[in-house]
Design brief:
Purple Acid Phosphatase, chain A, domain 2, single chain, six-stranded mixed β-sheet, 11 strands, binds zinc ion, five-stranded mixed β-sheet, alpha/beta
C-alpha cells in the first residue's frame, strides 16, 4: 500500500494536511478515504486515533494506517488504549469488541518477529498529542487527551455528565493557541472560542475559514460517523481553511463482517448504514 501523500511536493508557507480519525477497524471506509486523499494533493497526513475498536478488521486497518501515515503522525485514541490496557468505562458492546480486538492484534511472547509484533509495538508507542505547525492535535480534548467529549450540547449549556459545560469549554480553550483538531465524538463541526457556539457541517457547508478566533475542530469519523450522514468523513487543513470531505464506501460489506463475527454486536453494523 503506497502512501496517499504526494511525494516530492515543494514545501510552501502553507502546507495542506489531511486529518483522519476514528477508523474503528472499518477497512472499506479507510480504503475509500485513503483513495480520496490521493486525489487531494496533500503534503502530509495525520491520524487522530481510534484505528481499532468496534470494527471487524482491526489488524489490517493498523497495517494500512502504518503504511499510509508517516511514523510519528498518528496519536492514540481511547479504543487503541483500551486494547493495550483495559476497556474501563466502556459499554458492553464496546468492551466486548475491545477484548476481541486485543486477541486479534496482540503479539504474544512467541511472536518476536513479523507484522503482528511490529503493529503491536506501534500501537503501544502512539503519543497522546502532537503539535503540527499552528495546530494542536488530540483524540478527545486538550485537557483530557483520551477521554473527554466536546459536544454540541456543551455549547447550548447542557451537560449530561453533571459537569459545568462552560467551564469544560473554558478550560479546554485555555490550552488552545489557535486551532485544535479532535475526533472522538464522531460528529464533525467547529466550536468557536469567543462565543462557544457550535457550527455543524450543514451550517458551514463543509468549509471553515479560519479567522482570529480560537477554534476546536472535529474532523469527524472515517469508520463510524454519528452525525446522521453514513459517508466516511475526514478534513483537510491548509492554514487558512478547513474543508471536510464526505466519502461513499461499501458500508454493507463492513456490516456483513460484523454480523459474521460473534464477538461484535450486530448493532455496530446497523449503525453504519444510518450514520448514528
Ligand atoms: Zn472513536
Amino acid at each position: 500500500m503506497e502512501s496517499p501523500v504526494a511525494s516530492g511536493t515543494m514545501s510552501s508557507v502553507m502546507r495542506r494536511i489531511a486529518l483522519i480519525s476514528d477508523i474503528h477497524g472499518n477497512l472499506a471506509a479507510l480504503q475509500a478515504v485513503l483513495e480520496d486523499i490521493t486525489s487531494q494533493a496533500v503534503d502530509d497526513l495525520y491520524c487522530l486515533g481510534d484505528v481499532v475498536g468496534y470494527g471487524p478488521e482491526p489488524a489490517i486497518c493498523m497495517a494500512r494506517v502504518m503504511a499510509a501515515v508517516a511514523s510519528g503522525h498518528t496519536i492514540m485514541g481511547n479504543h487503541d488504549n483500551a486494547v493495550i490496557h483495559e476497556p474501563i468505562g466502556f459499554n458492553r458492546s464496546a468492551r466486548q469488541a475491545a477484548l476481541w480486538t486485543r486477541q486479534e492484534v496482540r503479539a504474544g511472547p512467541l511472536r518476536l518477529f513479523g507484522g503482528k509484533r511490529r503493529r503491536w509495538n506501534w500501537l503501544r508507542s502512539l503519543p497522546s498529542t502532537l503539535t503540527v505547525d499552528d495546530a494542536l492535535l488530540v483524540h478527545a480534548s486538550p485537557r483530557h487527551h483520551l477521554e473527554e467529549y466536546i459536544l454540541e450540547e456543551h455549547t447550548h449549556g447542557i451537560s449530561f455528565t453533571g459537569e459545568d459545560p462552560n467551564l469544560l469549554l473554558e478550560e479546554n480553550f485555555a490550552l488552545v493557541e489557535k486551532i485544535c483538531f479532535i475526533g472522538h465524538t464522531h460528529r464533525p463541526g467547529v466550536v468557536t472560542g469567543d462565543d462557544y457556539a457550535w457550527h455543524s457541517l450543514a451550517d458551514c457547508d463543509l468549509e471553515w475559514a479560519v479567522d482570529e478566533r480560537k477554534v476546536i475542530v472535529n474532523v469527524g469519523s472515517v469508520g463510524q460517523p454519528r452525525d446522521g450522514d453514513p459517508r466516511a468523513c475526514y478534513a483537510i487543513y491548509d492554514g487558512q481553511r478547513v474543508v471536510w470531505r464526505r466519502v461513499e464506501y461499501d458500508a454493507e460489506r463492513t456490516r456483513q463482517l460484523i454480523y459474521a463475527n460473534p464477538h461484535l454486536d450486530n448493532r455496530l453494523g446497523d449503525r453504519l448504514l444510518e450514520g448514528r
